Amino acid sequence: MGMMVSNAVHKSVRAYINHDKKIAQEVIDYDVDINDMEVKLEKKSFEMIALQQPVTTDLRMIITVMKASSDLERMADHAVSIAKSTIRLKGETRIPEIEKEISDMSDYVKKMVDNVLIAYVKTDQKDARLIAKMDARVNEYFESIYSHSIKAMQANPETVISGTDYLHVATYLERIGDYVTNICEWIVYLATALFDLEQQLKEKYGLLEVHVVFSPETNSQVITEYLASYAAGYLEETIKNGDILGVSWGTTVYEIARKLNSQERAERRNCLKRRD
To answer: Residues in domain PhoU (predicted)?
Structure first.
């Protein structure tokens, strides 16, 4: 399935750059096979969970298959969106320099997709972390294409339609890079049974210190993928209140501790003493 998606991404951008509507249509038609593959993998995974009650490594493997196949299917959807952009084009003014950037961005994203598939097969968490860092370069490509497209449209109104399409295609490629990063996170989970959420929570909520404790192996009935995927969303409101927050579903625990300024605490205690 991964190779099917990698091929779809590559062909969709080649079709866009070369104005090849035939290949673009092939990408669109091919998406049905990718969707079918994702459904089959998901169905098989649920059957194994229900009938075999896997634990520890086996459970993590099944969860990772489900999540990775879902991310791959979404990548294919973005490839289809690029292919549809090719079919929509009807001889509008093109900008070769920006198309070259899009081509380079596509090659880089395809390299990420191919590398993450190898890391997944090897369960190589070190490579997964390195691949995830490659997403920063994808973001740089996007920012450059965005800037150049806006300037081109401002300078020449005839490029508005093609410039808008460039922005869409760059956005689709940037999102594919994000999905590659998601798969990297699941490879780390498969190898270690841990999610590295500390930095993400620090940045999102402005916390000074975060400790995440995640133990998915103590109860085979806990479907840990949902907890892992949506925990941050569930905590978004409650994390702002209190110094320590513990949330538990079954035997899976996320503990988030936030340090408050010690001086502020001391002032509060002194204030209470004065009131007494």
So the answer is: 1-85, 102-187
